[in-house]
Amino acid sequence: xxxxxxxxxxxxxxxxxxPANAQVQDDLQNYVVLTKKIPQLQPIFLTAExxxxxxxxxxxxxxxxxxxxxxxxLTDKNMMQDYIAKAKKHNVELIACGFSxxxxxxxxxxxxxxxxxxxxxxxYNLQLQKKGYTSISL
Length: 138
Known about the structure:
Sulfur reduction protein DsrE, globular, Sulphur_relay_DsrE/F-like, five-stranded parallel beta sheet, 20% strand, DsrEFH-like, signal
């Protein structure tokens, strides 16, 4: 009886501490796109939708960093609401480059609060790549 109990405990411990179980999060496919043109968001959303279907339960995060002069367009809240709704539908996070906002004189208060701002979009993109994100710049 003691042997059965000890064997059961060891078996459960092996299951819980199995490195394969700990890597479930690491198996997620994460993506980041750096874009300089707002109209490119539409095909980016379609790409995210296709990858989510292909990856299934392994689909992780999909982030889009908007940088360059196009950040001026982020202040058009009517236009951006459609993009924000589509981003939510496809589990895409929209991110504005703070460096670009500063360079082109865009006040952060003038863009939708649904957009996250990172201080340096290029640096953030590289940091995500170091974490294993698949990356493309458009």
